[in-house]
């Protein structure tokens, strides 16, 4: 039986459920928070309580914000006619970190998966069709992960919007900048070869 107080064990247990943190990492994190209670734990607790009250899903695209519409959907400068479709909010935030895309996003909320019993009705695909019609979308960019489920979802979306008057494109896949062929997997090398371009 552990000598750790019940409340602290409970906090460690909750932290251990976070992605990237196991029981040992959670224990270290909690000990650090307790040692730096004033500088870390109290501000973290206050911020988490505030975010728990204010964070919500954007009704238009599925991003996380503090209002019904996220800042990207509210920004009129981003109404470029380009719509980038991503699997989840983490992918949207990754695209934003790159700073190259200036249009709007559509978060599917996952990918089609027969194993996990996730069908089209479980994703925001109907909302995607509505947005194409309502927002004057001219190009849909599929930025889905290069997994079997991601590619299955991409093909399904392509079929679903085939009758619309939009250009459909996907992110290039292949050798990353600074990448060495010897360290790449076979799938990445194959994708890079298929996506080759003239010099």
Can you characterise this structure?
- The chain is an alpha/beta fold and 199 residues long.
- The protein is built from eight helices and six strands; from the N terminus they run αααββαβαβαβαβα.
- The protein has a four-stranded parallel β-sheet. Strands 1-2 form a two-stranded antiparallel ribbon.
- Helix 1 packs across helix 2 (23-35).
- The protein is globular, with a radius of gyration of 21 Å.
Characterize the main sheet: 4 strands, parallel
Count, helices: 8
Strand order across the largest sheet: 4-3-5-6
Shape: globular
- What fraction of residues sit in β-strands? 5-15%
pLDDT under 50 segments (min length 5)?
A: none
Mean pLDDT: 91
Count of extended strands: 6
Could you tell me the radius of gyration in angstroms?
21 Å
Helix coverage percent? 40-55%
Structural class: alpha/beta
Q: What order do the SSEs take from the amino end to the carboxyl end, as H and E?
A: HHHEEHEHEHEHEH
Straight-line distance between termini: 67 Å
């Amino acid at each position: 039986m552990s000598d750790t107080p019940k409340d602290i064990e409970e906090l460690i247990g909750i932290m251990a459920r976070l992605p990237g943190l196991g029981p040992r990492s959670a224990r270290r994190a909690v000990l650090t928070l307790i040692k730096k209670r004033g500088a870390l734990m109290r501000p973290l607790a206050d911020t988490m309580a505030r975010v728990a009250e204010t964070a919500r899903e954007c009704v238009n695209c599925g991003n996380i914000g503090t209002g019904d519409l996220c800042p990207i959907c509210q920004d009129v400068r981003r109404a470029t006619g380009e719509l980038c479709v991503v699997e989840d909010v983490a992918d949207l935030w990754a695209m934003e970190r790159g700073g190259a895309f200036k249009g709007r996003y559509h978060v599917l909320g996952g990918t089609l998966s027969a194993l996990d019993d996730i069908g089209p009705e479980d994703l925001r695909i109907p909302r995607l069709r509505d947005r194409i019609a309502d927002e004057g979308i001219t190009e849909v960019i599929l930025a889905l992960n290069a997994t079997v489920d991601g590619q299955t979802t991409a093909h399904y979306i392509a079929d679903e919007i085939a009758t619309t008057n939009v250009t459909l494109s996907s992110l290039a896949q292949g050798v990353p900048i600074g990448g060495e062929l010897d360290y790449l997997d076979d799938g990445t090398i194959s994708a890079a070869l298929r996506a080759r371009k003239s010099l």
